[in-house]
Amino acid sequence: MGDIMQKESLWKQYQNHKRYPALTKGITCDVLIIGGGITGISCAFELSNSNQKIVLIDQNQIGQGITSGTTGKLTYLQNGIYQKLLHTFGEEIALTYYQSQKEAVETVEKYVNQYHIDCNFQKDISYLFATTRKEEDTLQIEKAFFKRNQIPYIYEKTNPFCRSRGAIKVPDTAVFHPLKYLYHLAELAYKRGVQIYEKTKAVGFKDYENNVIVDTERGYIRAKKVVFACHYPFFLLPGLFPLRAHIERSYVCAGKVKDAGNGNAINPSNPTYSFRYHKDRNKFLIYCGASHKLGDHLDYQENYRLLTEQAKEFMPNVDYIWQNQDIMTNDYLPLIGRLQKNNDHLYIATGYNTWGMTNGVIAGKVIRDLILGEENPYAFLFAPYRGIHFDQIKNFTLDAYQSGKSYAISKLKNYYSFYLDEVKIRKKKGKKLGIYIDEDGKYHIVSTICPHMKCSLTFNMFQKTWDCPCHGSRFDMDGKCIEGPSLKDITIIEKI
Length: 496
Ligand SMILES: Cc1cc2nc3c(=O)[nH]c(=O)nc-3n(C[C@H](O)[C@H](O)[C@H](O)COP(=O)(O)OP(=O)(O)OC[C@H]3O[C@@H](n4cnc5c(N)ncnc54)[C@H](O)[C@@H]3O)c2cc1C
Known about the structure:
The protein contains 9 helices and 24 strands. The protein has about 500 residues and is α+β, with helices and mostly antiparallel strands.
């Protein structure tokens, strides 16, 4: 690789995995899982020991969505989550959430040992550190919560990665290579009879005679139950998703280091600073930062520059750099379970607030139990149709404002000052066109309106993609949709 910085995730370098065929004809099944990230594969694996006929489809290749951009920590010490849950819901919910995350870490460890999964799994210590006075207050609240509930922790002045004003340290967490884990689990599920189809995109669904008919680009799938494990759902109803969450984008980099100790760390509020080591043939430090709400900081080139600048403090060279985005719910809890209370055909698992390694794993267990009609201790906690709390209304208002702001900005500013000469915006016959001129002088012309909810797209100079600042859809320079919720491309086949 030399000194060339790779503009994609460290995990994606792992190519030694099986590819699955695309669907070729209409089929029927008991359970259809849409999406092959950590959520979909965990659901498929958990259900694979039942007598249900399970089908999983992915629009792309499994494991190449948001899961491929994670930092791959398996921890219950998340960025200030207990303080938020205590404030919003109280002790019982905060404690149940803790138990769910602990169980997820233990589940991965159990599977790694039981099925000999070679995924660089390593038991680790997690730190939650404070960089400001306010963050110190958060630490005090989390510390008190741990003490009341006899959860082992140590309070220290420092953490292994950066300067801080104190840190909570907990044992029994872990780090792993998320894609090696996911591909191994997928293959186990496949061998137990789960049918997996790649390059098969769901584009709609409807109830039909006590079944759900899912329309894909390659034929219909008739299922008794459907699990939407596709990260940001591609439908507006049911669920009215844009009102319940916003998207946050972060930037991650990895650089080789001589010594990689133990420990992973994060601070409790924005801007986030997150660290872990990864030990494979080489040793890496992974650093994540420069996070922002999707509609803010649209100069992506500048965001990458900022991260690289910060990373210099911690690693000699940045070898890999990438961006990733996750769904932040306005009551801080994931959405896992029946999409609607009285409908046992449709299930969803998403909204992990950047903790999808643990929540995706636990989603597999919750969805399995709900589908098979068994009790699950976390089902009530994550129920997507749960009631509304005061904090949620406050955050909902902020999210709605943010969404409106992103939409308005995207409409008003049709030429961004940070675009270089390679990007032009033109109007033709009332249509707004975006033109990217590549290194060979070739024009790539697309529509700049996102098909999902009509926001104007922004060109991401670093990755050469058109990105939606409202709901996170992304399109390559020729207009092909590479990340949902949009179901359509923005390709334009015409000369200007
Ligand atoms: C910077 C960053 C760092 C993170 N670090 C951590 C961490 O250290 N620990 C942790 O616990 N969590 C972490 N997370 C969160 C975690 O990465 C995500 O929550 C998790 O990967 C989401 O998994 P998923 O399976 O829901 O989504 P995805 O991995 O995106 O899977 C969804 C799949 O659905 C497919 N799909 C979408 N639409 C369709 C369709 N219409 N038809 C068919 N298929 C479709 C996609 O192709 C994709 O493969 C991090 C997040 C970010 C942004």
